């Protein structure tokens, strides 16, 4: 699959210490396992001149104190608190100054963030989506991209999950409803450099 770098962004979802490092409170080996494949994908995309976006799931400590129903801390326990080591992107995937880092407070990277406007201002319409967790933030971000008329390309071998069946479910659902499933080796960035 050939992609035009000027209109393509690689969206790296929530590859943070809290999810990807063995000392993280919501560590999943499947999330750690995709660090190297994502790093290789980022390097190829950056070399070709594609855009890079990193999302960080970040929660202020009292975010859900007044919640009526939606409370991630009740579901997952306190995690990736604002300013914490857990909230930082893992060392193996450093962001450059030119990359956009989106702080989000829920599963969907488009919800109450600058992401959609930033992409539209640059004429980006293809989103190469990778990261973690497959059936949570990756799935919700991909679905939100699709309903906003971006083309979500979900990178099978660069998406982490807690369980293999979560990964399979998320990608089956994405392909059926809003996106395309690809492997990293099938992606070719037509270099602009």
From TrEMBL:
InterPro entries: Isochorismatase-like_dom, Isochorismatase-like_hydrls, Isochorismatase-like_sf. Residues 8-185 form the Isochorismatase-like domain. It holds the Pfam family Isochorismatase. It comes from the Archaea. Gene3D superfamilies: Isochorismatase-like. One of its GO terms (molecular function) is hydrolase activity. Keywords: Hydrolase. This is Isochorismatase hydrolase.
């Amino acid at each position: 699959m050939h992609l035009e770098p000027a209109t393509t962004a690689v969206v790296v979802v929530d590859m943070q210490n809290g999810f990807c490092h063995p000392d993280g409170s919501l560590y999943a080996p499947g999330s750690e396992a995709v660090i190297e494949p994502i790093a290789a994908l980022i390097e190829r995309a950056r070399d070709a001149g594609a855009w890079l976006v990193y999302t960080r799931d970040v929660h202020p400590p009292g975010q859900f104190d007044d919640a009526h129903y939606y409370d991630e801390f009740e579901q997952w326990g306190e995690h990736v608190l604002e300013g914490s080591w857990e909230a930082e992107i893992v060392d193996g995937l450093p962001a450059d100054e030119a990359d956009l880092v989106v702080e989000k407070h829920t599963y969907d990277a488009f919800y109450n963030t600058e992401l959609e406007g930033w992409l539209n201002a640059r004429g980006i319409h293809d989103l190469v989506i990778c990261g973690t967790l497959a059936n949570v933030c990756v799935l919700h971000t991909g679905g939100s991209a699709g309903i906003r008329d971006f083309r979500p390309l979900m990178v099978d071998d660069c998406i982490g999950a807690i369980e293999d069946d979560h990964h399979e479910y998320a990608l089956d659902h994405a392909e059926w409803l809003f996106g395309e499933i690809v492997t990293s080796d099938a992606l070719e960035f037509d270099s602009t450099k």
